[in-house]
Amino acid sequence: MDYAAFRNYVKESLEMVTGAPVELFSVKKNNLGSQEGLAVREGKGTASPTIYLEPYYQRYREGCPPGELIREMLAFYESRKEDVPLTTKLLRDFGKLRGRVVYRLLGREKNGELLEEYPHQRFLDMAVICSLLFEGREPGRAAAMPVEKEHLRMWGVMEEELFRAARENTPKLLPLKLQEFGEFMGDFLQGELEECIGKRIAEGETWTQGQIAGAKEALRQRMEKSKRESPVYILGNSLNLYGSSSLLYEGAAAWCRGQIGEDYYVIPSSIHEVLLLPESSCPEPGKVRQMVREINRDHVRPEEVLSGSLYRYREKMGILERWEAEEEKN
Q1: Does residue 245 lie within any of the structural domains?
Q2: Are residues 168 and 184 in the same domain?
Q3: Side-chain-facing half-sphere of 322: CA atoms under 13 Å
Q4: Which DSSP helix (H) or strand (E) runs through 295?
Q5: Is beta strand 176-180 parallel, antiparallel or unpaired with respect to 51-52?
Q6: What phi and psi values does residue 320 have, to the nearest 5 degrees?
Q7: What are the Cα distances from residue 232, in Å, to 171, 266, 278, 287, 305?
Q8: For all residues of the chain together, what is the average pLDDT?
Q9: Domains of the chain: total
Q10: Strands 101-107 and 51-52
Q11: Strands 233-237, 264-267: parallel, antiparallel or unpaired by DSSP?
């Protein structure tokens, strides 16, 4: 099947299984321009999760059976359809939605077309937009719907009021979280270690309590050594959703400086979090910036790339600024 035939196959299959109409539409996504998506419209005037077709079509071209893809789409729809309790009536009432307005960061370079439709403010070489945040049914999960200029016209609300609501709400709904990278990896690897030991025991291996404790202690020592040799911090928020926007919280940059104990560089690892690198651990920022660009190109999903720049916070300046090499300043 070519893409057009695949799109029709998916639409017809989902309509047959759900018994509800399926709407096809175009969505502008961060860094990707327009993407085609679809939504199952089971209830009149209710929101539905968007299923983006391009990733599924790519997997179909790689040999995945179309029936399996349909099952995955249905599973995604069923798991997410109640995450956005939004009706047409509610969408028209800014008074009831104001407490859900949060802001998020995205890059400006690749999002010119998208930013024409979204109210936004500039922040360094990035842009700040607003979204409506809805907590999911499961703890730690949420969905966000970008606010468009058309919404402001419908609400009769000025941009200033929208961003005022975002400044008030975002630190409350998405509290800042700063964690040492070594601590984060230690927690992750601790869980992996326990799972691995559990599987080995289930397969018949014998592990004494002393061996288990020894393995955990060896891991702890390795992570402590890593933290001393390369102190890096992860800055995000409690939901790990659009956590890079925590840079915008009032006083956040200065607070992080106090926690780290020195000036620092900001590595924009993704739209969901950033890395903070103490200045004493970064003798060659030019190489770090090049690393950022290579990681963005090779390892970060395109829609999650934030920026290819490197940023710096200096206490004497009291602001976050974009780092530039000396030769670039002339």
Answers
A1: no
A2: no
A3: 10
A4: helix 285-298
A5: unpaired
A6: -85, 135
A7: 23, 10, 7, 16, 20
A8: 81
A9: 4
A10: unpaired
A11: unpaired
Rounded Cα gap, residues 33 and 54, in angstroms: 13
Confidence (pLDDT) at 80: 72
Q: Do 171 and 93 have their domain in common? A: yes
Separate counts of helices (H) and strands (E) for the chain: 12, 13
Q: In this predicted model, what pLDDT tens digit does every residue of 233-251 receive, in sequence order?
A: 999 998 888 999 999 999 9
* CA angle at 40 for the pair 35 and 43, rounded to the nearest 5°: 135
Q: What is the pLDDT of residue 165?
A: 95
Residue 212: which domain range? Answer: 177-230
DSSP 190-245: HHHHHHHHHHHHHTT----HHHHHHHHHHHHHHHHHHHHHS--EEEEETT-SSGGG
- Tell me which of 282 and 161 has the higher pLDDT: 161
Report the candidate in 330, 312, 18 with the shortest Cα–Cα distance to residue 322: 312
What is the C-alpha separation between 159 and 120, in angstroms, rounded? 8
CB of 152 closer than 8 Å to CB of 92: no
Residue 205 sits in the same domain as residue 170 = no
Residue 134 falls inside a structural domain:
yes
Identify whether 239 is part of a domain.
Answer: no
Task: Give the global pTM.
Answer: 0.71
Angle between helix 3-18 and 53-61 (nearest 10)? 110
Sequence letter at residue 273 = E
From 175, 191, 220, give the residue that closes a domain. 175
80, 110, 136: which is the final residue of a domain?
A: 80
Task: Check if the beta carbon of residue 256 is closer than 8 Å to that of residue 178.
Answer: yes
Whether residue 243 lies inside any domain: the answer is no
